[in-house]
Amino acid sequence: MALEQKYLNVTTRAESYMDIMMYLPDNSVSIANINSDDILQYSNIDSLKDIKNYTSTTIATLEENLWLLNGSFINPTAGRLYNGYISNSMSNEDGQFETNPTIDIELSNTGKVEHFSIVLNPAVKSGYPKQVNVTFIDRDDVELATLTKDVTKETSLPNLVYDVNLENVAKLKIEFVDTMTPKRRIRVSSMMFGKILVLNQNQVLNTDYLDKCSYVPDSIPSRTFSFTMENYDKRYNIDNPSNGYVNLDSQTRVMIRNGYNIFGCKIAFCILVERTRFFDCVTGGDNNIYFRFWE
């Protein structure tokens, strides 16, 4: 029985969970070249240039206790590339690499980078790195700064968001240090220059989901997701310069996830709904603000 169906059938369920992730790219920064000396032959590393190529699936690879025969892994086809990055190297029995996998990025133009985001592949959470170092380099190969994320302490996984605010950035080097579980490869779904805004059920007043179709061919099936947030302090007003949501537009990628928190040694997240939607419009009331997304 599928994991999702099993939890739907039980009488007492764990606390439900929802989060909404909005990806806001900085269109002034683009990637000219991206490569790695440690990459599995099936990986389409070029797909990391565009957040719209995000993938939450992955291919089956030879890793200990990872071969689940439930359809969650794709058996790779010879000669075909799959979106995302997978390292060719595998960590040892201590979760360490002989040489840490790295990704090198060259930007189209030298300029300012405010935020940089990496999205790890949630299909294999046990393969998350313990630490990710991002080094920013200028056109003369001078290192401007190295920013580090301790993934074991991050609360927004699979998202890693770096507040950069550096000028004259021309290149980046990303280093993945160790893995959470021994004998795992590094997997990255996407990356983006820009930031990721994350909302959870504690910040949302209510939600509405409409799946619409017609029994006669007079319209295209559509799905609409909307939610309401308090706006008593006017923080989301369009004339508020600290309102990060004013940059949302029809190209903004949004992911809405629903599931259950399952308590044990650690909290697990069982995704029941994982879809991509695009921003449609925002209208504000006296004390609330309304967001609507459509697909």
Mean pLDDT, rounded to whole units? 79
Q: Whole-number radius of gyration?
A: 20 Å
CATH superfamily of the largest domain: Galactose-binding domain-like
The CATH architecture of the largest domain? Sandwich
| CATH top-level class of the largest domain | Mainly Beta
Order of helices and strands: HEEEEEEEEEEEEEEEEE
Helical segment count: 1
| Low-pLDDT sequence parts | 263-275
Alpha-carbon distance between the two ends: 29 Å
Q: Characterize the biggest β-sheet.
A: 13 strands, antiparallel
Count of DSSP E strands? 17
The helical percent reads under 10%
- Strand content range: over 45%
Q: How is this structure best described in words?
A:
By secondary structure, the chain is an all-beta fold. The chain folds into two domains: 3-20 and 200-294, no CATH class; 24-194, Jelly Rolls (Sandwich), CATH 2.60.120.260. The chain is 2% helix and 49% strand. It contains one helix and 17 strands. A hairpin with a 3-residue loop joins strand 16 and strand 17 (288-294). The protein is globular and about 55 Å long. Mean pLDDT is 79; it is low at 263-275.
The gist of it:
The protein is mainly beta. The chain has one helix spanning 3-9; strands spanning 16-25, 31-35, 43-44, 58-59, 73-74, 82-83, 85-86, 102-120, 129-137, 143-150, 159-179, 187-200, 206-212, 222-230, 253-262, 268-284, 288-294.
What are the salient characteristics of this protein?
17 strands; 295 residues; Jelly Rolls; mainly beta; two-stranded parallel ribbon; 2 domains; globular; 13-stranded antiparallel sheet
